């Protein structure tokens, strides 16, 4: 064999090895089992065709499980995941600890300045973006227009909790498995406590006073939890203490909820005739208030972030850029229609006439997102930031434990007074241990 042939064969072998090495880039993506994320997985051929050297491995989990696994992985620097689905709560806390890569490789055409200011601010730390929003949300009332009419009532644009109770009483028809209201009852800081914290804001309650002292022993929290438990016991579905976002979505789609107060992102699902039996009879209203100047709406974004523990940071940012881009929005619109694109992330979407025509709830979503104020979430002053959560590292553990007690109160395993007393003790102990004074 001549020297020339040996050189050529050697070059070919090296080229083959290089291609093989390229093809070995596998991104493991941890995500939540919500409808928009499930849709994303079905559309990823668009990404892999453009990036044949990147393979995708999906780990799709229920919300509470996802949070636990992702938190454990990043805190221990295990490096199991290359892309994380996390929320507005985690991003600034984890970025401050050096656990997340700044997203500075999203590409020249990504258009970071198009992200909604409220959403972008929640996903930034020291003016740098550390997570890209896949979808953003607030919360509002979704209701059956036919049942409201049958009840002889008209839903106000800004309903009070008293009106919600009145309407729920009239809509409930347990003999036909129709329940006046569906609300989150499943325990979890991001499940029932997201709803209850936002609700408590409207009742004038707060997690802590200015001195970081827990406030569960106040009349405001007593009023919040009492109203919530009594409302669901009278007009909620059986087993409400086990229901989170996905369970209530299924109930509403099946025609079993007169009203559902939850994430604005659900609007595209409850109005989809392919999955909702009541798609043509759905109306929307702002999250309820109690006349104290605060509505019970939250602010959240399910977002994609890259942990510093990954060995595939550049490829991970390339995927994050694709999944949260204008191109991806157009891909969903082409595949499933404009009503199903991920909402609440970009200013341009809310100026798009095609989207506004397909999504009559769009302006209410945008208004709810913009009106949620993480820096002034409550009626009384507080030392913390966050609408449906408290933006401190300890909240994840405290919120989960309090959520279990409040879920038990709803299920009848604990009295309301006992649940509040335990929440007060638990929270005070955890805060003292953490060094808050």
What does this structure look like?
It is globular and about 55 Å long. It has 437 residues and is α/β, with parallel strands linked by helices. The longest helix has 21 residues. Strand 4 and strand 5 form a beta hairpin. The protein has 18 helices and eleven strands. A five-stranded mixed β-sheet has the order 2-1-3-11-6. It has two domains: 194 residues, Periplasmic binding protein-like II (D-Maltodextrin-Binding Protein, domain 2, 3-Layer(aba) Sandwich); 221 residues, 3-Layer(aba) Sandwich (D-Maltodextrin-Binding Protein, domain 2), CATH 3.40.190.10. 44% of the residues lie in helices and 13% in strands. Helix 17 packs antiparallel against helix 18.
Q: What structural keywords apply?
A:
single chain; 437 residues; alpha/beta; D-Maltodextrin-Binding Protein, domain 2; 2 domains; globular; disordered N terminus
CATH architecture type of the largest domain = 3-Layer(aba) Sandwich
Q: How many helices does DSSP assign?
A: 18
Task: Bin the strand percentage.
Answer: 5-15%
Total discrete domains: 2
Q: Helix fraction?
A: 40-55%
Give the helices and strands as they follow along the chain.
HEHHEHEHHEEEEHHEHHHEHEEHHHHHH
Low-confidence stretches: 3-22
Shape: globular
Strand order of the largest sheet: 2-1-3-11-6
CATH fold field value of the largest domain: D-Maltodextrin-Binding Protein, domain 2
Q: Major sheet: size, sense and barrel closure?
A: 5 strands, mixed
Cα distance spanning the termini: 81 Å
What is the CATH class name of the largest domain?
Alpha Beta
Structural class: alpha/beta
Q: How many strand elements?
A: 11
Q: Taking Cα atoms only, what radius of gyration do you get, to the nearest Å?
A: 23 Å
